[in-house]
């Protein structure tokens, strides 16, 4: 899979649709520790994250996903124990901790979508050339973000592998799917989150096709 | 191909150096405000990219493009940020930005005892050397059509 996620942002900057490809391998490492812990942890954004001490695939920024097989829910475990307290108690050791890159929550996605919306505007404002549009693509070493803004201000955002080609065609196709299955749905009110089964199914199909066959066929 | 302008920020967000070559559009705001806006944008993009990334990042944000220009970004571990705007036909500029850091900034600013490190660069030598270097790049010439 070379397509990671799809986001649709309305003209006011709020997220109206998001899709994450289920086959993306998020790194997760499980390891047994003895007292005292050689990692420095801190609570950040209601999550317990590693702030110092990378080892064995555990990276700075990874969050604790579970302890001794019990999944973590924010800064507490599912059985109600506080993670930081559990880790500070010597009697709990040896202890098995699972680390990984945390999934984005819906709230975080909404925040990132509005962030992109304003970054888009800054991009055109700071242009050294006149009449520049906003950000089209944004490249990092792990992914490339493609943004297609329609005439009506709706943004289609695609997160892909940096090497993925012909993304413009996929974006256009997604726009087509959106106009066919979201906008023609009589129960859909404009600028509101898209909740339509047909749209979901068709979007997924476009992405799967793009991944499997290359773009020539869509 | 052409290079529009170049920004150098330190880790606190102070603009250490700014230079421009073929810039057509001047903003209505003052340079100072423009620097703040640029630093704020880069700072937000960095945080945005690291949160959005599905896997762990090594270098992080590299560049972005709009319909008219491409912004290249390079950051050193000490937090110096090198930003260069070019037109869309320019490929990877990481080596160029690294070169500006290692053989211009380090040589003519860091090794100059009269240069304060967290103050804007006033050294004429650095200014000339950078200008010379940029003008000598294969990416610099403007196409005959424009």
TrEMBL record, chain A:
Family annotation (Pfam families): Sybindin
Keyword Flavoprotein: no
Keywords: Endoplasmic reticulum, ER-Golgi transport, Golgi apparatus, Transport
Compartments in which it is found: Endoplasmic reticulum; Golgi apparatus, cis-Golgi network; Golgi apparatus
Subunit structure: Part of the multisubunit transport protein particle (TRAPP) complex.
Function: Core component of the TRAPP complexes which has a function of guanine nucleotide exchange factor activity for Rab1 GTPase. Plays a role in vesicular transport from endoplasmic reticulum to Golgi and autophagy. May play a role in dendrite postsynaptic membrane trafficking.
Annotated family: Belongs to the TRAPP small subunits family. TRAPPC4 subfamily.
Record protein name field: Trafficking protein particle complex subunit
Species the sequence originates in: Aplysia californica
From TrEMBL, chain B:
Subcellular compartments: Endoplasmic reticulum; Golgi apparatus, cis-Golgi network
InterPro entries (UniProt xref): Longin-like_dom_sf, TRAPPC
Record's keyword terms, sorted: Endoplasmic reticulum, ER-Golgi transport, Golgi apparatus, Transport
Keyword Endoplasmic reticulum found: yes
Keyword Thylakoid: no
SMART domains: Sybindin
Transmembrane segments: none
Subunit composition and interactions: Part of the multisubunit transport protein particle (TRAPP) complex.
Family in the record: Belongs to the TRAPP small subunits family. BET5 subfamily.
Protein name: Trafficking protein particle complex subunit
Species of the source: Aplysia californica (California sea hare)
């Amino acid at each position: 899979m070379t397509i990671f996620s799809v986001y649709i942002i309305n003209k006011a900057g709020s997220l109206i649709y998001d899709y994450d490809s289920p086959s993306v391998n998020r790194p997760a490492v499980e390891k047994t520790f003895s007292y005292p812990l050689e990692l420095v942890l801190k609570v950040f954004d209601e999550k317990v994250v590693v702030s110092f001490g990378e080892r064995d695939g555990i990276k700075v920024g990874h969050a604790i996903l579970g302890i001794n097989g019990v999944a973590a829910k924010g800064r507490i475990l599912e059985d109600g124990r506080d993670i930081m307290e559990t880790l500070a108690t010597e009697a709990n050791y040896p202890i098995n901790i699972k680390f990984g890159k945390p999934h984005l929550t819906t709230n975080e996605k909404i925040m990132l979508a509005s962030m992109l919306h304003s970054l888009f505007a800054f991009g055109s404002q700071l242009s050294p050339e006149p009449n520049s549009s906003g950000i089209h693509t944004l490249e990092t070493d792990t992914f490339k973000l493609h943004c297609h803004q329609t005439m009506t201000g709706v943004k289609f955002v695609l997160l892909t592998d940096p090497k993925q080609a012909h993304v413009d065609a996929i974006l256009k196709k997604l726009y087509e799917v959106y106009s066919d299955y979201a906008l023609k749905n009589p129960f859909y009110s404009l600028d509101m989150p898209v909740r339509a089964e047909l749209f979901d199914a068709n979007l997924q199909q476009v992405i799967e096709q793009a991944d499997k066959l290359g773009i020539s066929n869509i | 191909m052409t290079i529009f302008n170049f920004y150098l920020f330190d880790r606190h967000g102070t603009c250490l150096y700014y230079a421009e070559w073929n810039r057509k559009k001047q903003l209505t705001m003052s340079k100072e405000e423009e620097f703040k806006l640029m630093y704020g944008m880069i700072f937000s993009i960095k945080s945005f990219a690291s949160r959005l990334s599905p896997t762990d990042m090594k270098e992080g944000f590299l560049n972005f493009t709009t319909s008219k220009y491409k912004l290249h970004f390079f950051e050193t571990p000490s937090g110096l940020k090198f930003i260069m705007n070019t037109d869309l036909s320019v490929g990877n500029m990481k080596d160029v930005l690294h070169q500006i850091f290692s053989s211009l900034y380090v040589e003519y600013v860091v090794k100059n005892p009269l240069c304060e490190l967290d103050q804007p660069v006033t050294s004429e030598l650095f200014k000339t050397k950078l200008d010379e270097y940029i003008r000598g790049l294969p990416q610099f010439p403007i196409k005959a059509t424009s």
